[in-house]
């Protein structure tokens, strides 16, 4: 059983991590059954093992996230005309779930295209800037799944292939969305910004599709209009990344610290107070 101090630290940590979103959801008409899955931090040895196995270094913001909490899951329901619907779903895979997506070719169907082949096709045939822009995908590009999006697509951490003149630079990564037609769509230049975007969009169904040419399904769009119409403009174009920064606060890097350290410091303070008495 956790002590009162542990409970207080956990509550404060998640309040800061979610920028107070849980309290906002609980006060929003129609939203109910808000559930947050609390998880322990990742051990540094596991982080080092992941990097060694996959041959790449985790971005600083994602590494700090995992040293604080091993993944994230926040869900909520919505009362729609008396029917309780599971609507909100915010997920960041645990470190063990941050798995590499190797290739779309499979042994059963050798004609299935690879990521690079699909990307080349999109570049040659796409007339929109939303899909697969400025990619540098190649045989050495690495894709890791952050969220399966309830089988509607995949949010991925993507390490782009470095050019010859960039071989001595650190690997660059960004966050992209892979839809079910295997088109890539840029979401954010780093994990911290994607996490903020997820909070702003409340984990609404198919919110990532707002950043694609196709957009969400009519049902998902209806949920957005009912619960958070401010996320859409009159012409149904999502808010820009610049506007997102104005809507929400930046996550304080100090939040990404192991909770055990906070607990230890509180215990030390209490012990010192006892000795002083």
From TrEMBL:
PANTHER family in alphabetical order: TUBULIN POLYGLUTAMYLASE COMPLEX SUBUNIT 2
Organism encoding this protein: Cacopsylla melanoneura
Domain of life the protein comes from: Eukaryota
Domain Knr4/Smi1-like per the UniProt entry, residue ranges: 41-197
Protein name, as recorded: Tubulin polyglutamylase complex subunit 2
Organism lineage string: Eukaryota, Metazoa, Ecdysozoa, Arthropoda, Hexapoda
InterPro entries: Knr4/Smi1-like_dom (IPR018958), Knr4/Smi1-like_sf (IPR037883), TPGS2 (IPR039231)
SMART domains found in the cross-reference section: SMI1_KNR4
């Amino acid at each position: 059983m956790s002590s009162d101090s542990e409970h207080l630290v956990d509550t404060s940590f998640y309040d800061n991590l979610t920028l107070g979103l849980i309290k906002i959801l609980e006060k929003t008409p129609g939203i109910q059954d808000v559930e947050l899955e609390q998880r322990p931090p990742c051990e540094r040895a596991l982080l080092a093992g992941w990097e060694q196995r996959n041959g790449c270094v985790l971005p600083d913001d994602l590494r700090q996230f995992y040293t604080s909490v091993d993944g994230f899951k926040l869900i909520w329901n919505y009362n729609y005309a008396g029917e309780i619907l599971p609507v909100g779903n915010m997920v960041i895979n645990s470190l063990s779930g941050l798995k590499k997506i190797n290739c779309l070719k499979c042994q059963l169907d050798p004609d299935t295209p690879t990521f690079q082949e699909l990307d080349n096709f999109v570049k040659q045939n796409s007339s929109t800037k939303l899909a697969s822009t400025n990619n540098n995908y190649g045989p050495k590009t690495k894709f890791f799944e952050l969220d399966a999006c309830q089988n509607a697509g995949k949010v991925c951490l993507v390490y782009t292939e470095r050019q010859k003149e960039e071989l001595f630079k650190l690997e660059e990564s960004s966050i992209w969305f892979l839809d079910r037609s295997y088109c890539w769509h840029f979401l954010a230049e780093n994990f911290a910004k994607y996490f903020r975007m997820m909070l702003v969009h409340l984990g609404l169904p198919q919110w990532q599709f707002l950043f694609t040419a196709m957009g969400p399904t009519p049902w998902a769009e209806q949920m957005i209009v009912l619960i958070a119409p401010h996320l859409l403009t009159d012409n149904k174009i999502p808010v820009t990344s610049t506007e997102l920064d104005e809507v929400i606060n930046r996550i304080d890097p100090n939040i990404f610290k192991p909770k055990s350290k906070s607990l230890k410091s509180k215990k030390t303070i209490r012990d010192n107070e006892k000795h002083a008495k």
